[in-house]
């Protein structure tokens, strides 16, 4: 390797590798952009800013409203626009799914912050 990669911010593993623009830890599976962690150290990884569809900052425990109808695999109806979701949890999800929640009638699922509005 031409330059040394930073250790994993979650498990401190030194065996990280680059994958496109991300740095990946093979031990815990954590992925991050190296510029984010270099700018603010530990504060940058713990203080991630997630915004809803209209630009409001979301936090753990907030209530949100779904702004557009969503198809749900295995469900004939899906989630309708206007469905209220309480007590969200922000996560580092897959494919942009950064909200973990429980929706009445559907159970636990992950949503993208771009399809919700803070209630």
From TrEMBL:
The chain positions of domain Protein YjdM N-terminal read 4-32
Example GO molecular function term? hydrolase activity
Record keywords: Transmembrane included? no
Q: Which Pfam families does this entry report, sorted A to Z?
A: YjdM, Zn_Ribbon_YjdM
Keyword Transcription regulation carried by entry:
no
Question: Keyword annotations for this protein?
Answer: Hydrolase
- Superkingdom in the source lineage: Bacteria
Do you know which InterPro entries this protein is assigned to?
YjdM, YjdM_C, YjdM_N
All residue ranges annotated as the Protein YjdM C-terminal domain in the record:
50-119
Q: Which SUPFAM superfamilies match?
A: Prokaryotic SH3-related domain, Zinc beta-ribbon
Q: Which Gene3D superfamilies did the record assign?
A: 2.20.25.10, SH3 Domains
Q: Which family does it belong to?
A: Belongs to the YjdM family.
> What is the name listed in the Swiss-Prot or TrEMBL entry for this protein?
Phosphonoacetate hydrolase
Species annotation: Streptomyces katrae
């Amino acid at each position: 390797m031409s330059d040394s990669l930073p250790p994993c911010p979650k498990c401190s593993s030194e065996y990280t590798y680059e994958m496109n623009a991300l740095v990946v830890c093979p031990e815990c599976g954590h992925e991050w952009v190296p510029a984010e962690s270099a700018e603010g150290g530990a504060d940058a990884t713990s203080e991630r800013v997630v915004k809803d569809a209209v630009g409001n900052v979301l936090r753990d425990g907030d209530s949100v409203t779904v702004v557009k109808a969503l198809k749900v695999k295995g469900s004939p109806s899906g989630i309708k626009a206007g469905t209220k979701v309480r007590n969200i949890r922000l996560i580092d999800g897959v494919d942009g799914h950064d909200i973990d929640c429980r929706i009445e009638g559907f159970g636990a699922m992950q949503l993208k912050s771009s399809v919700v509005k803070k209630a």
